[in-house]
Prior knowledge:
Blueprint: H1 2-28, E1 34-39, E2 48-57, E3 60-69, E4 83-96, E5 103-109, E6 112-120, E7 125-146, E8 151-170, E9 179-198
Antiparallel strand pairs: 1-2, 1-9, 2-3, 3-4, 4-5, 4-6, 5-7, 6-7, 7-8, 8-9
Amino acid sequence: MKINRLVLFVVLICTTFALNAQEQHRIEDKGAVVGVKTNIPYWGTATFNAGVEVRLAKKWTLELEAGLNPFDGKKDDGSYGRSLKHLRLHPELRYWFCESFHKHFLGLHIPYLLYNVSDVKLLGVENERSQGWGTGVGVSYGYQWLLSKHWNLEATVGVGYLYLDYDKYPCANCGSKIESGHKHYFGPTQAAISIMYLF
């Protein structure tokens, strides 16, 4: 009998704390808690992309963005033309100066990349193909404008470090590897103008 009363007392205390915590959560956490977004300029590279951002606290969010370009530029003769084939995962923890999903923020991101790019002078693979993977760390600054109750516009830029591991092939004969190696990259790691829908 005493055990039943003790269990009932513990259940009542836990229920009271849970109801109080929920009420406090409602008071403190007004506004959007989840947003879905897409980076508009990233579509210009024929890359499908989407992101999800989740509110962790009043001034903290966690974002995960993914980009996929499945086009390999492979020709009928087996050689490769210009291609930006890649898969990019971009998690980022953000601190907001005002409140989440509004105005200025700073971010810390840890990107991961699988790539198979060819004949892109800007990436240092003119008349060559390079495939491999990369990861790193960077910081970003951004700003979000409220467009309406559910829509935001975001601009963000980031810089950091990437470690890139690769194999190089000549575009004309992609079966013969020229070299394997790795590269340390310091520079821009993020640039986005995103449209976002908030829930």
